[in-house]
Specification:
Elements: H1 5-15, H2 24-65, H3 67-72, H4 75-105
Helix pairs in contact: 2-4
Length: about 110
């Protein structure tokens, strides 16, 4: 299941119009966008891995030592606690990194 070849070829022909020549600044913007995307993924993965370790150690320790946690937190609850912290850290860091890249690449102070 993909895009049929006729539709793909028609779309590709439509997007590459030889009448318009893009400026070098557009290429630079595209490169900056790709670099920002890679930076966001790298920063988000780093934050998620740190949050995973930071939340896993107390959660697993509490489930072994605290009687309430031992009785009420099964394996699914422990997994949800750890993964929720990791996912939240990833998306919060990704959002902050995207905003930082947008500020850095803004054209307000740059002269053309």
């Amino acid at each position: 299941m993909g895009i049929p070849s006729e539709m793909r070829d028609a779309w590709a022909a439509k997007t590459t119009n030889p009448l318009f020549i893009s400026s070098p600044s557009e290429y630079q913007r595209l490169i900056n966008s790709r670099n920002c995307t890679q930076e966001v993924v790298r920063a988000g993965a780093k934050a998620a891995s740190i949050a995973c370790v930071v939340s896993a150690v107390p959660t697993l320790t509490a489930c072994r030592m605290i009687p309430w946690a031992k009785a009420n937190l099964n394996y699914t609850a422990q997994t949800l606690i750890i993964s929720a912290a990791s996912i939240a850290a990833y998306f919060i860091t990704a959002d902050k990194t995207i905003l930082e890249c947008a500020r850095r690449n803004a054209q307000y102070g740059k002269s053309a």
